[in-house]
Amino acid sequence: QVHLVESGGGLVQPGESLRLSCIASGIRFSDYQMAWYRQAPGAQRELVAAITPDRNTNYADAVKGRFTISRDNANPLVYLQMNSLKPEDTAVYYCNIPYYWNYNDNWGQGTQVTVSS
User: What is the share, in percent, of the chain residues with pLDDT greater than 90?
Assistant: First the structure.
Protein backbone atom coordinates (compact mmCIF):
# COMPACT_ATOMS: atom_id res chain seq x y z
CA GLN A 1 0.00 0.00 0.00
CA VAL A 2 1.06 3.60 -0.51
CA HIS A 3 2.85 5.06 2.49
CA LEU A 4 3.69 8.75 2.76
CA VAL A 5 5.82 10.23 5.52
CA GLU A 6 6.36 13.97 5.81
CA SER A 7 9.00 15.68 7.91
CA GLY A 8 10.81 18.98 8.37
CA GLY A 9 8.14 21.18 9.88
CA GLY A 10 8.62 23.32 12.94
CA LEU A 11 8.12 26.65 14.62
CA VAL A 12 9.75 29.61 12.88
CA GLN A 13 9.49 33.38 12.84
CA PRO A 14 8.22 35.34 9.83
CA GLY A 15 10.84 35.62 7.11
CA GLU A 16 12.59 32.40 8.03
CA SER A 17 12.80 29.24 5.94
CA LEU A 18 12.00 25.56 6.23
CA ARG A 19 12.57 22.60 3.96
CA LEU A 20 10.00 19.83 4.06
CA SER A 21 10.67 16.30 2.89
CA CYS A 22 8.35 13.47 1.90
CA ILE A 23 9.21 9.82 1.52
CA ALA A 24 6.85 7.88 -0.72
CA SER A 25 6.80 4.11 -0.77
CA GLY A 26 4.57 1.45 -2.31
CA ILE A 27 4.54 2.99 -5.79
CA ARG A 28 6.80 3.48 -8.76
CA PHE A 29 7.66 6.95 -7.53
CA SER A 30 9.24 8.27 -10.72
CA ASP A 31 6.06 7.54 -12.74
CA TYR A 32 3.81 9.88 -10.77
CA GLN A 33 3.22 13.55 -10.29
CA MET A 34 3.74 14.53 -6.65
CA ALA A 35 2.20 17.40 -4.76
CA TRP A 36 2.27 19.26 -1.48
CA TYR A 37 -0.95 20.31 0.22
CA ARG A 38 -1.66 22.20 3.40
CA GLN A 39 -4.55 22.51 5.79
CA ALA A 40 -4.93 25.34 8.26
CA PRO A 41 -7.23 24.96 11.28
CA GLY A 42 -10.86 25.23 10.22
CA ALA A 43 -9.95 25.38 6.54
CA GLN A 44 -10.11 23.04 3.58
CA ARG A 45 -6.99 21.29 2.48
CA GLU A 46 -5.48 23.16 -0.45
CA LEU A 47 -2.93 22.41 -3.12
CA VAL A 48 0.35 24.24 -2.56
CA ALA A 49 2.66 22.93 -5.28
CA ALA A 50 2.94 20.07 -7.73
CA ILE A 51 5.73 18.54 -9.76
CA THR A 52 5.57 16.13 -12.67
CA PRO A 53 7.98 13.23 -13.23
CA ASP A 54 9.94 15.41 -15.68
CA ARG A 55 10.01 18.28 -13.16
CA ASN A 56 7.44 20.66 -14.55
CA THR A 57 6.05 22.60 -11.60
CA ASN A 58 2.92 24.45 -10.60
CA TYR A 59 2.27 26.63 -7.54
CA ALA A 60 -0.61 28.18 -5.71
CA ASP A 61 -0.65 31.95 -6.12
CA ALA A 62 -0.19 32.43 -2.39
CA VAL A 63 3.22 30.75 -2.41
CA LYS A 64 4.51 31.55 -5.89
CA GLY A 65 7.99 33.05 -5.74
CA ARG A 66 8.55 31.88 -2.17
CA PHE A 67 8.19 28.09 -2.28
CA THR A 68 9.99 25.62 -4.51
CA ILE A 69 8.97 22.01 -5.03
CA SER A 70 11.58 19.53 -6.18
CA ARG A 71 12.05 15.81 -6.45
CA ASP A 72 14.76 13.22 -6.65
CA ASN A 73 13.54 10.54 -9.04
CA ALA A 74 16.46 8.31 -8.12
CA ASN A 75 14.98 8.19 -4.62
CA PRO A 76 11.38 8.27 -3.39
CA LEU A 77 11.71 11.87 -2.19
CA VAL A 78 9.90 15.12 -2.81
CA TYR A 79 10.84 18.41 -1.16
CA LEU A 80 9.25 21.74 -0.47
CA GLN A 81 11.65 24.61 0.15
CA MET A 82 9.73 27.37 1.90
CA ASN A 83 11.34 30.79 2.06
CA SER A 84 10.09 34.11 3.39
CA LEU A 85 7.54 32.35 5.53
CA LYS A 86 4.48 34.28 6.65
CA PRO A 87 2.04 33.66 9.50
CA GLU A 88 -0.61 32.72 6.93
CA ASP A 89 1.58 29.78 5.89
CA THR A 90 0.82 28.15 9.23
CA ALA A 91 -0.76 24.77 8.52
CA VAL A 92 -0.21 21.05 8.51
CA TYR A 93 1.60 20.19 5.29
CA TYR A 94 1.00 16.91 3.47
CA CYS A 95 2.41 15.27 0.39
CA ASN A 96 0.34 13.08 -1.89
CA ILE A 97 0.05 11.64 -5.39
CA PRO A 98 -2.70 13.54 -7.24
CA TYR A 99 -3.25 11.03 -10.06
CA TYR A 100 -2.98 7.85 -8.06
CA TRP A 101 -6.32 6.06 -8.21
CA ASN A 102 -7.00 6.11 -4.46
CA TYR A 103 -4.89 9.12 -3.48
CA ASN A 104 -7.54 10.39 -1.03
CA ASP A 105 -7.12 7.23 1.05
CA ASN A 106 -3.39 7.68 1.46
CA TRP A 107 -2.89 10.86 3.45
CA GLY A 108 -0.06 10.65 5.92
CA GLN A 109 0.20 12.37 9.27
CA GLY A 110 1.56 15.57 7.78
CA THR A 111 4.11 17.90 9.32
CA GLN A 112 3.18 21.02 11.27
CA VAL A 113 4.52 24.38 10.13
CA THR A 114 3.93 27.26 12.50
CA VAL A 115 5.04 30.78 11.61
CA SER A 116 4.71 33.18 14.51
CA SER A 117 6.39 36.30 15.82
Answer: 91
